[in-house]
């Protein structure tokens, strides 16, 4: 890895080195820890299993993403992976 890449890896998205970010609250601390985990992963610090566990842990702190279409998980007719719930795939009953 070149010196330029090491410098870029050690900076946050706004160009401030991670080591110089003031930890003012728990949210900032968590975001810095996540950035440091991502940096370590880019440098090859974790095995696949460890990286998977780190990502699983990070996802617990990320807000849920809204889907384009909200579906009721208890309604089998709203399952987008079920061909039977596709209105364009309807057969006329005989």
Low-confidence stretches: 1-7
The count of helical stretches stands at 3
What percent of residues adopt helix (DSSP H or I)? 25-40%
Multimeric organization: single chain
Mean pLDDT: 75
E-strand count: 0
Radius of gyration: 22 Å
Distance from first to last alpha carbon? 67 Å
Shape: globular
Structural class: mainly alpha
H/E element order: HHH
Give the strand content.
Answer: under 5%
Main pleated-sheet profile: none
Give an account of the 3D structure:
This protein has a domain at 1-63. The relative contact order is 0.07. Helix content is 38%, strand content 0%. It is globular. With 94 residues, the chain is mainly α. It has three helices and no strands.
SSE arrangement:
Blueprint (H helix, E strand, L loop, with lengths): L2 H7 L16 H17 L5 H12 L35
Overview in brief:
This protein has 3 helices and no strands.
Can you give keywords for this protein?
0% strand, single chain, mainly alpha, globular, 3 helices, 94 residues
